[in-house]
């Protein structure tokens, strides 16, 4: 095969990799920033977090564009095709993670319009765990390490349990003081967003497994959100 | 080009089309069923709705599998490539719609464990509108009708407004009677699920536009969930 073509194909895959890496860095930074502005009750900074989400959306469009071009011009097969397919899937998951992080920031602005409630204390720890899962999933993807990816799946159950605890706690706050209902409702949705981020980390992990092995990982994912059971 | 290859390629695209049509039919039927079991407070039937979601997940896997095979064996270009890309994206959206419908059914089981609350009266109308958007988006996709697809996007704003009304109504119920807080919280999440279904209908519409025109539709989507602003 022509060396020039091979080299160029590799550089295109690397470009995709770089875009996804960049997306992941922004998305995890966004979640950290969302929690930070929530804790500091800084609406100005929260608006910047919301606006920053555009950078992730733009990168996802770039990935889609590059994937379509790569498929058309290079017609990859087998593992190469899975590389491209995984890039498409994983970029969609990161885009959703970014959306959820931005929504956490957006709701923190609403919360700043009412008196502070102590009910949100559990949120940063939940977000910290979720972001750890996302970083782990992305590290496993970067290293194409299927085993490491699968460890994320089992840790998602931990996040779900922590979310369930926070959910129940928020309900008791609402029952004790009806004036906190609006604030607690937004906190509930913020917690739910963070729980969903864990699901997307699991998706990234499963796509990494598929990329390496060419088949879906065995076994069921742990049950999700236990509050609706 | 070999007639046999062309014919076979067409039949593979038709197969994809058929799978997506089937997915769409199940997902919209699932949402109807979820609302029906919610209204009838029928937990047995709700469990069947939850279990049925597997059929949609299995079809999405089939679509992904067929897409990868088609990309590897047929190496489609231009419009053909966009056909395959759109199938992949749209199947992912339908899968999410199915998840949300199943979650509505799942939460209705939790609701049946407490006394009926009148606060959920607005839910069926919301779901009806969301399902209309999904059916319209799928019809536009089936007909490859980009203009019809774009009409879905503007109607999604209607759904968002209706959701916002229901959200505020549920908050007042909670404030008036703290015993309804748990039930109303589940209703809030059910309403949010349905609002998200509208977003996925819009995604399907936008992918249909892209499939036909080879570029993203112009203009911003209307703002989403107004309750977090």
From TrEMBL, chains A, B:
Its main location: cytoplasm. Transmembrane segments: none annotated. Keywords: Cytoplasm, Phosphate transport, Transport. The keyword Transport applies. One of its GO terms (biological process) is phosphate ion transport. It is found in: Cytoplasm. Pfam families: PhoU (PF01895). Residues 20-107, 126-207 form the PhoU domain. GO terms for cellular component: cytoplasm. Plays a role in the regulation of phosphate uptake. Homodimer. Belongs to the PhoU family. PANTHER family: PHOSPHATE-SPECIFIC TRANSPORT SYSTEM ACCESSORY PROTEIN PHOU (PTHR42930:SF3). This is Phosphate-specific transport system accessory protein PhoU. It comes from Arenimonas metalli CF5-1.
């Amino acid at each position: 095969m022509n060396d020039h073509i091979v080299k160029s194909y590799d550089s295109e895959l690397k470009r995709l990799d770089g875009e996804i890496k960049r997306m992941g860095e922004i998305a995890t930074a966004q979640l950290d920033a969302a929690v930070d502005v929530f804790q500091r009750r800084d609406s100005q900074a929260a608006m910047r977090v919301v606006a920053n989400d555009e950078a992730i959306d733009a990168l996802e469009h770039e990935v889609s564009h590059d994937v379509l071009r790569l498929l058309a011009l290079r017609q990859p097969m087998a593992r190469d095709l899975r590389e491209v397919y995984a890039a498409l899937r994983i970029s969609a998951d990161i885009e959703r993670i970014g959306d959820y992080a931005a929504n956490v920031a957006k709701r923190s602005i609403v919360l700043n319009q009412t008196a502070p409630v102590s009910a949100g204390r559990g949120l940063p720890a939940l977000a910290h765990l979720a972001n750890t899962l996302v970083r782990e999933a992305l590290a496993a993807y970067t290293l194409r390490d299927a085993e490491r990816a699968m460890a994320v799946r089992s840790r998602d159950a931990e996040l779900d349990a922590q979310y369930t605890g926070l959910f129940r706690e928020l309900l008791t706050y609402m029952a004790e003081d009806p004036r906190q209902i609006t604030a607690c409702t937004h906190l509930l949705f913020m917690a739910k967003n963070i729980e969903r981020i864990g699901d997307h980390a699991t998706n990234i992990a499963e796509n990494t497994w598929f990329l390496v092995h060419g088949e879906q990982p065995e076994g069921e994912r742990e049950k999700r959100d236990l509050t609706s059971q």
